[in-house]
Specification:
Largest sheet: 7 strands, mixed
Number of helices: 18
Strand order of the largest sheet: 9-8-11-10-12-13-14
Number of strands: 20
Helix content: 25-40%
Low-confidence stretches: 453-459
């Protein structure tokens, strides 16, 4: 995979002569992205593109080429790959659609590509792919602009939309591999590479179908011992499974079998796309949860009951607080206030102020040996008159002192986005849009502490 992710020289075959907005020029995007290696444009109808000499054929280039990026009509692809073999190129990305994702002729061409890879030793990524992204090496083969961020998150997908929309899908991305139709390079190759990559701490995967199931499940069960793997498997319905065939030409397979096998391999299995961003930030920033016992701190008794139901759905439970924890919180509360879990601290807030009351309660539960994780429920005020209810600074100070247990929060009120940024600025407390998702996030951290790895390879 090094030739794909860290090339020193790239041939762009079939590159557009147009440039500027709307041209989708791979070379223009590659240069803007900061790639410092050698680029060889290949187009028999041009002599110069963006100031670079253009070659008629890849065989005309006398220098070594690490990677070829092919953007030509499908009927030309096989001959171009043969040219790449003749030029001793070891890696090629086929960008265009119209292969196994299309008609019978497309399937035939893709099969020829696979046979060339097996026979000649050239590795092929795609077809039907945006290719790769490496923010650590300032390299991408995408013709679409991509946000640059050296994040320790590796993404494997079957659609380039997840490169372009990384902020919405995974929150961030450091390296990415779009396997497309996976005629040669597939999920196993990509997972093996990212699993051994010291730059990557967590792996997020969008999967439509899988060609080498047994090999992938076995590999995932090994990689997950070193770094978390999160998978969103699409095609859960009959209609969705048929759509996967027309998109990448891969069989989606039985969703429930995939789910059981992937969870058995120890990966975090997601049911919907909206979970990916939150799963990534949870597993990337928070410590694992060593047990099932949760403490809840809240301004609202009703919200405390709601989160109790959610915790039970994810196999977690409210813990009985220690006598010392109860004593510390009781000192802030009126005599008539029963102290339990969830901890309703509103009466203490009225007497001692928001920051003081919440800080004491959070310190108490974090120091409680019976507590494994904490959910905080707080207000996100908008108008200055209610700014005293905002507790992000107070709680972040507590977390700097006591960072060893996961703390997640749900904010209610008119200004959650602005206050969320304040909470998450120190990356010690993560904010979630619902109580259900806050409870779910703790279950991910619990599963990460004790991954349910099934050592038997699924059939």
């Amino acid at each position: 995979m090094k030739n794909f992710m860290e090339p020193e020289s790239v041939a762009l075959i079939g590159i557009s002569r147009k440039s500027g907005p709307g041209s989708f020029n791979v070379m223009e995007n590659m240069i803007k992205f900061g790639f410092s290696g050698r680029i060889f444009p290949i187009n028999p109808k041009a002599r110069e593109i963006l100031g670079k000499k253009v070659y008629d054929n890849v065989r005309s280039v006398k220098e070594r080429i690490d990677l070829a990026v092919i953007s030509t009509p499908r009927e030309n692809t096989v001959n171009i790959l043969k040219d790449c073999v003749a030029a001793k190129i070891k890696a090629a990305i086929v960008v265009n659609q119209g292969f196994a994702d299309a008609d019978s002729r497309g399937k035939e061409i893709q099969q020829e590509m696979t046979e060339i890879a097996k026979k000649e030793g050239i590795r092929i990524l795609g077809p039907n792919t945006l290719g790769v992204l490496n923010n650590f090496n300032n390299f991408t083969t995408s013709f679409m602009p991509i946000t640059k961020e050296r994040a320790p998150v590796g993404l494997i997908c079957q659609s380039g939309i997840f490169f372009v929309g990384a902020l919405e899908f995974s929150g961030t991305i450091g390296k990415g591999i779009d396997v497309g139709n996976a005629c040669d390079i597939g999920f196993c190759d990509a997972l093996s590479y990212l699993g051994g990559d010291p730059d990557i701490k967590i792996i997020a995967i969008h999967m439509e179908g899988l060609n080498k199931g047994k090999e992938f499940f076995s590999l995932a069960s090994k990689v997950v011992k070193e770094k978390p793997i999160i998978i969103l498997k699409t095609g859960s319905t009959e209609t969705g499974a048929k759509a996967a065939i027309s998109h990448t030409g891969t069989m989606a397979g039985d969703y429930q079998i995939y789910k059981a096998a992937l969870k058995g391999a120890g990966v975090a299995f997601l049911e919907e796309d909206g979970q990916m961003t939150y799963a990534v930030k949870t597993l990337l920033n928070l410590p694992t949860m060593k047990g099932n016992n949760v403490a809840v701190i809240t301004y609202s008794g009703a919200a405390g009951i709601m989160v109790t139901d959610a915790l039970e759905r994810y196999g977690l439970k409210l813990v009985s607080l220690s006598p010392e924890t109860i004593r510390m919180v009781a000192e802030l509360s009126p005599d008539w206030m029963p102290i339990g879990n969830p901890l309703d601290i509103w009466p203490a807030v009225m007497k001692y102020g928001t920051g003081n009351a919440y800080s004491v309660a959070l310190k108490a539960v974090l120091n409680d040996p019976q507590v494994d994780g904490v959910i905080c429920i707080a207000i996100a005020p908008m108008i200055p008159e209610f700014s005293f209810l905002e507790v992000s600074e107070s709680l972040n100070r507590v977390m700097e002192e006591l960072p060893h247990k996961p703390v997640v929060a749900w904010l209610y009120g008119p200004n959650p986005k602005k206050i969320s940024k304040k909470f998450e600025s120190k990356k010690r407390i993560m904010i979630y849009p619902t109580l259900e998702m806050a409870a779910w996030s703790l279950s991910l951290l619990r599963e990460r502490q004790v991954p349910k790895v099934n050592t038997a390879t699924p059939k």
